[in-house]
Design brief:
3 strands, globular, mainly beta, 66 residues
Length: 66
């Protein structure tokens, strides 16, 4: 899978990196992209306007008290 994008962010609120890939041709009818998001900092919420797709997020880090 070719790398589609890499975004690095650093601010007083924290640091994060987002890396995205295009899916294999066999999945392209079902999956628009894959991504890995790694963050250090205080990420508490995000406002997302209505849209026609959804994101599946899987937390592989430590459990937080949310």
């Amino acid at each position: 899978m070719p790398l589609a994008a890499r975004i690095d962010h650093d601010s007083p609120l924290g640091r994060w990196r987002l890396v995205r890939w295009a899916p294999a041709p066999q999945l392209s009818g079902f999956v628009r992209r894959f991504g890995i998001w790694r963050a250090d900092g205080a990420y508490t919420r995000e406002r997302i306007p209505p849209r026609t797709h959804f994101d599946l997020l899987i937390n592989l880090g430590e459990r937080t008290g949310c």
